[in-house]
Design a protein that fits this description.
The structure is a homodimer of 235-residue chains.
Chain A (H helix, E strand, L loop, with lengths): L7 H6 L11 H14 L8 E2 L1 H8 L3 H13 L3 E4 L3 E4 L4 H21 L5 H19 L3 H17 L4 H18 L5 H5 L3 H12 L3 H28 L1
Antiparallel strand pairs in A: 1-3, 2-3
The structure holds a DNA duplex (21 and 21 nucleotides).
Chain lengths: 235, 235
DNA sequence: GCATATTTGTCCGTATGTATA
DNA sequence: CTATACATACGGACAAATATG
């Protein structure tokens, strides 16, 4: 890699340069950009210039474009021909569609899980613990990450590569939606105890009960998000 | 585009050069490669060299890599770091996983369709007709395409962008599996009348009956494919 | 509506690193 | 272990499209 530029933007971007040694350069660049999108530094609608970012990150345009492609496929960015790439902006319809997919995937996964392996159940517990811990420290961004991890672990119970991968895409997209919530705390806090309850139901072997609880959970979250969308449209 | 080379390979690839004028260069290249993969010219496991293909198609390596990315995302190709891209090889477990996804997506789509729009239902009918017509002409490759179109249309009934897109990926992947069938006719013919029956049930408003019929259909097809896999493993 | 500046799309040549015979 | 082939990544160039005044 060439000597990187040292602009202000570069400093903002490279806060986690320590973990920059795995995978191809394009993948590492994509990791950085993904983080900046999900944490809100690059808000929906923002255009990502090839020259600006390439200079800031010290990578060539070709490599940067490769990273863009990865994120376009994750649906975090959209690509407009001859206009460049933009952080995706989701509308209320997308929220409805995303939650339809979540209900389908997550509830089906739980119901199809049968008697899940202890390792898979353990992953669910780990995520629940992490969310509660982050909540205790007031780190609501981390709560959001742990929550995603929880739902990912739920789908993993079905032991289906493709369901797991599809869920990853859906959940990544969902992070773009969360930016409409003015308060991350208000959005995440109510779900902590629901997460733990679902874990308990699963541990007790009551998959059907867990699926039903999850279904209601998702319905409430969807409504909350749609309300936030309606409110932001008024302003 | 630069002057393309004129190797034998180029002639094989560019049989449909006429339709080479829409979208970005990378997308057009991806379309060509997708066709050659699904029709079997590039069989599973085959390595696609950047230099060889770039020369044959008259595009630069950068552009070709962009096309590779698209197909890797469609799971038709796999990418191994520093080794290149290969046509994906699916194993019996993949068949099981793919059919799990199919059952989930297609049956849920039908059950969630409610009273589908006449336009969406019309798409189903068109696909059924096309399959029967191709069958009458003995064009089994076209029957396979029409069949994919039929299932795609079923999922489209749910009117969910993401379900539709996920289905497209699953069905594209499935085409890789079909190559294990020694006789495309044997595999596709038995399903023609099932397709029409499902269409009739939908048109009559019996979504639940259609979903049940589809579920059985998929179970039979899965078993048939798994048998073919077992047989090819013996040889 | 037009001319100009900016940005992307595409290609090339080359240097470096990695896997494999 | 060496040699070869190939992928990764860089920088520069020009064409083409878009945005701006």
């Amino acid at each position: 890699m060439a000597t990187r530029g040292s602009s202000d933007l570069a400093d903002q971007l490279l806060t986690d340069r320590a973990s920059l040694d795995r995978g191809s350069t394009a993948e590492r660049v994509a990791d950085i950009l993904r983080g900046r999108i999900t944490d809100g530094l690059f808000p929906p609608g923002r255009r990502l210039s090839e020259e600006e970012l390439g200079g800031a990150l010290g990578v060539s345009r070709n490599t940067l474009r490769e990273a863009f492609r990865l994120l376009v496929h994750e649906r975090l960015l959209v690509h407009e021909l001859n206009r460049g790439v933009f952080v995706r902006t989701l509308v209320a319809d997308d929220v409805v569609d995303l939650y339809r997919m979540r209900r389908l995937l997550e509830c089906a996964a739980i119901r199809a899980a049968g008697e899940p392996s202890t390792a898979a159940l353990e992953q669910v517990r780990v995520a629940v613990d992490a969310a509660e811990q982050a909540s205790a420290q007031g780190d609501w961004l981390a709560v959001g990450s742990a929550n995603m991890q929880f739902h990912q672990a739920l789908v993993a119970l079905a032991n289906s590569r493709r369901m797991t991968e599809t869920a990853r895409h859906v959940l990544a997209e969902l992070r773009l939606v969360f930016h409409v919530m003015s308060s991350h705390r208000e959005f995440h806090e109510p779900y902590l105890h629901r997460n733990r309850k679902i874990y308990h139901l699963l541990a007790a072997g009551d998959n059907d009960g867990a699926a039903t609880a999850l279904e209601e959970y998702l319905g409430v979250a969807e409504r909350q998000l749609l309300d936030a969308y309606a409110a932001s449209a008024d302003r």
